[in-house]
């Protein structure tokens, strides 16, 4: 017979933070109340209307025009806010659209301090857009806290990080970075939480000011939507970003909001499966003779395994590993996969695999790739929710080909 204590212990087998109760219930019910609709629809309807009848001039029922506010988007934004224990949520037409809205809060002469290892699109936006607008950007390794203190300037407005990073899955201490950054007035700390989702990490609870997502990944979870979001607690920050959401026009379609809202209902279930599948695969790869090194925050060999256990409720489906060999071996391996699909992106139910050197980071020079540790034999997996035995068999047969 298993006691309550045993259940809790078995759920935190790897000593990650224990999930407080209520997450899955919120993901299914928050902002979804059927009583808010005349029809009492259990599933929030897709409101395609771009405009809304007014009782008299400027006497409206809360909705004026769908770029400002739309009922389907409103449901999603409220649900998203609750999952991060935040007060306010805003949805954008993509993850990078969210970043664009946040950059437009700054002005010429401001400074952004960014983690060195970032999603390549974020890096490109900082280097090729922000710098053009005379916004200075410095990239540092935020895992080294002395760097934060040394690099913050009087004009620093944003500290931007993601953890775990892409594709090397380096874990950054959110509490520690926020503590240092918040010694300087006016600095807003943004955490891109796309790789974990709020089920596994809640940056606002750890001191961040804004958490951002590409909803295109785990949050929607089915590789059929491109969308983004920002969640925060501070009302003034929310009002600024809400203004920019509508003034820049970076808004998602009601249909896509419906799909992400549906995706969230299975987020907890999916993340649990991503978690167990990816750890089993990481352990399999770590013992394989053709694999040099495996990067997965759930492995005791991961450099920030202890920090990961303190900061997160577990790990997602992301696994990176170094094959013994170079570009040729990595290509042959990827082309030999049958269950994994060779494709960009991550976080969906389908398992995907890719070569960072040949795909996401192909526009970087060899020196830049070397500096970022993007070796030729590096492979990134987004482990899906298929039967794990089928996935391991697939990896085994593809490794046998090289
Ligand atoms: C995909 C991704 C983005 C960009 O999101 P889009 O929805 O593609 O614009 C930003 N950050 C991370 C970590 C991502 O994986």
TrEMBL record:
Q: Which cofactor does it need?
A: pyridoxal 5'-phosphate
Matching entries from InterPro entries are given as: Cys/Met-Metab_PyrdxlP-dep_enz (IPR000277), PyrdxlP-dep_Trfase (IPR015424), PyrdxlP-dep_Trfase_major (IPR015421), PyrdxlP-dep_Trfase_small (IPR015422)
Task: Give GO BP annotations, semicolon-separated.
Answer: cysteine biosynthetic process
N6-(pyridoxal phosphate)lysine sites (modified residues): 217
Record-linked CDD domains: CGS_like (cd00614)
Going by the UniProt record, its keywords in alphabetical order are: Amino-acid biosynthesis, Cysteine biosynthesis, Pyridoxal phosphate
Pathway, per Swiss-Prot/TrEMBL?
Amino-acid biosynthesis; L-cysteine biosynthesis; L-cysteine from L-homocysteine and L-serine: step 2/2
- Does the keyword field hold Cell inner membrane? no
> Tell me, what's a Pfam family for it?
Cys_Met_Meta_PP
Q: Supply the EC number(s).
A: 4.4.1.1
Top class in the EC scheme:
lyase
* UniProt keyword Oxidoreductase present: no
The entry sums up its family as follows: Belongs to the trans-sulfuration enzymes family.
Please give the name of this protein: cystathionine gamma-lyase
């Amino acid at each position: 017979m298993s006691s309550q204590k045993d259940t809790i212990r078995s759920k935190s087998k790897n000593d990650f933070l224990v999930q407080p109760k209520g997450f899955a219930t919120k993901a299914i019910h928050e902002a979804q109340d059927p009583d808010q609709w005349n029809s009492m629809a259990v599933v929030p309807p897709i409101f395609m209307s771009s405009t809304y009848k007014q009782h008299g001039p400027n006497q409206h029922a809360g909705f004026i025009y769908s770029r400002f506010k739309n009922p389907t988007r409103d449901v999603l934004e409220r649900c998203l806010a609750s999952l991060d224990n935040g007060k306010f949520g805003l949805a954008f037409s993509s993850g990078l659209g969210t970043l664009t809205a946040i950059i437009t809060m700054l002005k010429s002469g401001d400074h952004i301090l960014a983690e060195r290892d970032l999603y390549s699109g974020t890096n490109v936006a900082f280097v090729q857009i922000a710098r053009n607008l005379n916004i200075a950007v410095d990239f540092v390794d935020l895992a080294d806290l002395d760097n934060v203190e040394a690099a913050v300037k009087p004009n620093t407005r944003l500290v931007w990080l993601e953890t775990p990073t892409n594709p090397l899955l380096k874990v950054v201490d959110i509490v520690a970075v926020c503590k240092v950054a918040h010694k300087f007035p006016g600095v807003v700390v943004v955490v891109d939480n796309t790789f974990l989702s709020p089920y596994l990490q809640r940056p606002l609870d750890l001191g961040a000011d804004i958490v951002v997502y590409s909803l295109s990944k785990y949050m929607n979870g089915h590789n059929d939507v491109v969308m983004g979001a920002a969640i925060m607690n501070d009302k003034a920050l929310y009002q600024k970003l809400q203004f920019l959401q509508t003034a820049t026009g970076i808004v998602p379609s009601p249909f896509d909001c419906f799909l992400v809202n549906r995706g969230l209902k299975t987020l907890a279930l999916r993340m649990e499966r991503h978690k167990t599948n990816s750890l089993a695969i990481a352990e399999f790869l770590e013992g394989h003779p053709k694999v040099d090194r495996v990067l997965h925050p759930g492995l005791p060999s991961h450099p920030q395994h202890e920090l990961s256990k303190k900061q997160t409720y577990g790990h997602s489906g992301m696994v990176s590993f170094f094959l013994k060999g170079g570009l040729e071996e990595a290509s042959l391996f990827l082309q030999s996969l049958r269950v994994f699909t060779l494709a960009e992106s991550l976080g969906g139910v389908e398992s995907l695999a890719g070569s960072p050197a040949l795909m996401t980071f192909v526009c970087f020079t060899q020196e830049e790739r070397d500096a970022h540790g993007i070796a030729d034999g590096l492979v990134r997996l987004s482990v899906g929710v298929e039967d794990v035995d089928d996935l391991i068999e697939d990896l085994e047969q593809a490794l046998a080909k090289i």
